[in-house]
Amino acid sequence: MVMTQGDTLQEAYEMAVDCLGLALSIREDEKQPFPATSYPENISLKNNEYLVIIEFNLLDYKKRTNSKAVKKTLSIPEWMNTAALK
Questions:
Q1: Which residues have CB under 8 Å from 52's CB, separation 6+?
Q2: How far apart are CA 22 and CA 27, in angstroms?
Q3: How far apart are CA 81 and CA 78, in angstroms?
Q4: HSE on the CB side for 35, CA within 13 Å?
Q5: CA torsion 40→61→59→53, rounded to 10°?
Q6: Do the Cβ atoms of 24 and 58 come closer than 8 Å?
Q7: This prediction's pTM
Q8: Where are the alpha helices (DSSP H) in the chain?
Q9: 60 Cβ neighbours under 8 A, 6+ residues apart
Q10: What is the CA radius of gyration of the chain?
């Protein structure tokens, strides 16, 4: 379980997206299964509580937060190399 907060609803939502991304990325890196899906109708709320659905895409999160460069070596035809150098 992870928790986060914010001073405003917008800030709390943004922090929730980052918190979810970090938690899922760690689980994926450690080859742990993702938690089961929660369904809104099965969540009980107390007084002064409300449910917010967090829209999240793990691939988009990784693209946004992972800027690590990866070096790749490849072979191309000689004609293509000559054309590229020109």
A1: 9, 13, 16
A2: 9
A3: 5
A4: 10
A5: 10
A6: yes
A7: 0.68
A8: 9-29, 58-65, 78-85
A9: none
A10: 21
Using one digit for the tens of pLDDT, what is the confidence trace for 1-15?
788 999 999 999 999
Within 13 A of 84's CA, how many CA atoms are on the CB side?
6
**Which two three-digit tokens encode residue 20?**
């979810």
Structure tokens given for 52: 């917010």
Query: Could you tell me the two tokens for 57?
Result: 């895409």
Buried b (16+ CB within 10 A) or exposed e, 8-41: eeeeeeeebbebbbeebeeeeeeeeeeeeeeeee
